[in-house]
Automatic annotation (TrEMBL):
Residues 347-410 form the Cysteinyl-tRNA synthetase class Ia DALR domain. Its cofactor is Zn(2+). Transmembrane segments: none annotated. It holds the Pfam family tRNA-synt_1e. CDD domains: CysRS_core. This is Cysteine--tRNA ligase. Its main location: cytoplasm. GO terms for cellular component: cytosol.
């Protein structure tokens, strides 16, 4: 039975989805005003790990990850760069998706962008106003009244009675020790440049917190299974999501809240001023591979801080080589006989089922590697055991993604590309389009360039 630590109840609970065999998952995505750093990707990799475990346990996962393309930070960046907001956010959205693909993160089913869902946010705010949970201010902004929700603070154990005399906060982010009424709708100001929408309260834009509530509910319904993010999202973002969603809908919102801990760099907080601020491109320039980065970030439990050090690359490289070498040895004696899995797979699964205990699962796997190598050295491993071992390695990799994937282009894809090129030369454009779609259905994208077609994995 899968068990997760639920941040809302602050204890481990058996995982029971609303619909048997299916999981509705929402994860807070990037705010696309800059390149995502490895602290962000620590959380995104945890969510990828969770998703892979759910799939491995037989669940059908419907995953939504939002794109925050309008908020205080994105508008500030557009103003600083003197560029349209969409130009900034489109660039960093594409960069995020490229980086995610590089890290072998399984894509979400939908990446809803906040700017494409503003009407749903307006509708939700209107519900809150109608029910007495929100109020309009003189400038045309709308604020949520945290005193109107008796359970406000349940996620982070804050005391609403601490509310200061200045009871409202416009900023998207603020401190845990100062809970205040928060902005659902922000009235237009000149500093917002040309970013605004018309609403019943006048021109303005949505606050950050209402964005995730409206989009998660649109795609997953009023009551869904799992909501994830980093611990930095707990307050005020997730606390506010819970309040406004329950008050608008009058129903429970999310069953399980899972949060990944912070990433440290060389024992300290990551920051640009300290010169220890890493994006993926920085790590690739340092010589790390995708698989080494995945190992370093997934080797710790998601609820413990990860201390990222470049010198861990040596350990990661050795670990990956051990897996590859054993896989090669097992292949040399394996037969095509039908095989299951080694007994250790059960202990491996039990570790994963216990709140995604990655260090324990890895320990089981690498202890099995050690024992298997001893048996191989003594020539005691039979073909059936070798086949079971290969199954275990494949299963392990389906969850951890530590084995480099070969991107050699299959011959059938090369043949389709050649056929398409001939169709293009002959002006058979319908056939060309049909072949492009066929190539795409096989997981490859073809791009026509002056020097000929270029292929890349989707």
């Amino acid at each position: 039975v899968l068990r997760f630590y639920n941040s809302l109840t602050q204890k481990k609970e058996n995982f029971v989805p609303n619909e048997e065999g299916k999981v509705k998952l929402y994860t807070c995505g990037p705010t696309v005003y800059d390149t995502a750093h490895i602290g962000n990707f620590r959380t995104f990799l945890f969510e990828d790990f969770l998703k892979r475990v759910l799939v491995a346990r037989g669940f059908e996962v419907f995953h939504i990850m939002n794109i925050t393309d309008v908020d205080d930070k994105t508008i500030q960046k557009a103003r600083d760069k003197q560029k349209p907001l969409s130009q900034i956010t489109d660039h960093y959205t594409k960069k995020f998706k490229r980086d995610s693909a590089e890290l072998k993160i399984i894509p979400a089913d939908v990446y809803p962008a906040a700017t494409k869902h503003v009407q749903g946010m307006i509708n939700m705010i209107q519900q809150l106003v109608d029910k007495g949970h929100a109020y309009k201010t003189d400038d045309g902004s709308v604020f949520f009244s945290i005193e109107s929700f008796k359970d406000y603070g349940s996620l982070t154990n804050i005391n609403v009675s601490k509310m200061r005399q200045s009871k409202r906060v416009e900023s998207d982010e603020y401190s845990l020790d100062n809970p205040r009424d928060f902005a659902l709708w922000k009235a237009y100001k000149e500093e917002d440049i040309d970013v605004f929408w018309d609403s019943p309260w006048g021109r303005g834009r949505p606050g950050w917190h209402i964005e995730c509530s409206a989009m998660s509910i649109e795609y997953l319904g009023n009551h869904f299974d799992i909501h994830c993010g980093g611990v930095d999202n707990k307050f005020p973002h997730h606390e506010n999501e819970i309040a406004q969603s329950i008050c608008a809908l009058g129903t429970p919102f999310v069953n399980y809240w899972l949060h990944a801990e912070y990433l440290l760099v060389n024992g300290g907080k990551m920051s640009k001023s300290l010169g220890n601020y890493y994006c993926l491109s920085d790590l690739y320039e340092e010589g790390l591979t995708t698989e080494e980065i995945r190992y370093i970030l997934l080797s710790a439990h998601y609820r413990t801080k990860v201390d990222f050090r470049l010198n861990k690359q040596h350990e990661a490289k050795k670990v990956i080589q051990r897996i590859q070498e054993l896989k090669s040895r097992l292949k040399s004696i394996s037969s095509s006989v039908s095989a299951g899995f080694p007994d250790e797979t059960n202990s491996f699964n039990l570790a994963l089922e216990n709140d995604l205990n990655s260090p324990k699962a890895m320990s089981v796997f690498f202890d099995w590697i050690r024992k298997t190598n001893i048996e191989l050295d003594k020539n005691k491993l039979i073909a059936k055991k070798a086949a079971e071992g290969l199954n275990f390695i494949a299963y392990f990799d389906s969850i951890y993604g530590l084995l480099p994937k070969k991107e050699s282009i299959p011959q059938n894809i090369l043949d389709l590309v050649a056929e398409r090129e001939e169709a293009r030369r002959n002006g058979e454009w319908e056939k060309s389009d049909r072949l492009r779609n066929l190539i795409a259905s096989e997981g490859w994208l073809v791009k026509d360039t002056p020097s000929g077609p270029k292929l890349s994995l989707k």
